[in-house]
Amino acid sequence: MSENLDFLGQLDPDDPKQASQQIANKLRAAILTRRLAPGDKLPSQPDLASRYGVARETVKRALDLLRSERLIVSRQGSGAFVRAQTQRPVELRPHIEAAFERPHVTIDFAGFSGETLRDALAEALDKVRVGRLAPETIVVRVLISDMTVPMALPSRAETQADDPAVRERAERIARRAADGIIDQVAELGDLGLIRSTAVEVRMHRASPLFKLYILNSEEVFYGFYPVIERTVSIKGEPMAIYDLMGKDVPLFHYAVTDDDTSHGTQFVEASRQWFDSVWSTIAYRYDG
Known about the structure:
- The protein is α+β, with helices and mostly antiparallel strands.
- 35% of the residues lie in helices and 24% in strands.
- The chain has seven helices and twelve strands.
- It has helices at residues 19-32, 45-52, 56-68, 93-99, 115-129, 164-190, 263-280; strands at residues 72-75, 79-82, 104-111, 137-145, 155-156, 196-204, 210-215, 219-224, 227-234, 237-244, 252-255, 284-285.
- It has a seven-stranded mixed beta sheet with strand order 11-8-7-3-4-6-12, with helices on both faces. It has a three-stranded antiparallel beta sheet with strand order 5-10-9.
- Strand 9 (227-234) and strand 10 form a beta hairpin.
- Helix 2 (45-52) packs across helix 3 (56-68).
- It is elongated.
- It starts with 18 loop residues before the first helix and ends with a strand.
């Protein structure tokens, strides 16, 4: 980012607004016009201070303004990023790739099947294979619903009741995604490209109503599964079911900041506590 900041313009000496306000305005315009897209890293404070010929404290005040407007989020030791406030699953991928820039990668997922995680991981792991990313360790934990037991969702729409055939279809989807995550991470360890890899999948008996991603214990992406009625093929016959729609679900982004009292920091901590509590109590091992 520091090599080309021309799109951020220069300060106007005739503008009565303070330099910090002018800098905030230019960054805000870049964010709203997508010159800085959700998930992009902002130029560093030294780079901005150098460009605009101001003290770093002036830049810091500008960033504080954008942070208060929830346009950016700061990550400990990494800098400031455009907030991915209502990201869609496809936009989760650059954040997962950014997580893989760390030497030690941890990813926790809770939800229905983990299909989005599997696909996003595939792209990051491809970059590990060709040497563009080189983490030392990867630890992935996946927490999914056990579709072999009665569930409120998905269900047969006609009766609004649990149906073993409907659950069997859902189980196939969930197992395919879980096995894919296990296999593709383990392969990198087997090839010796990663010093240590670990993937563990656990199950529980609650219906999945939301999806949750925790990246490196510092970022959380959270979204709700809408319940929709749709017709699917089960054992060759059309059946109307109440299903959980995970594709293109808006995800809300929260990240740890230097402020322990910030909304993002508290949400990440609460998410970690929730995940660990379910993982260590009612969840049990997945036998793929």
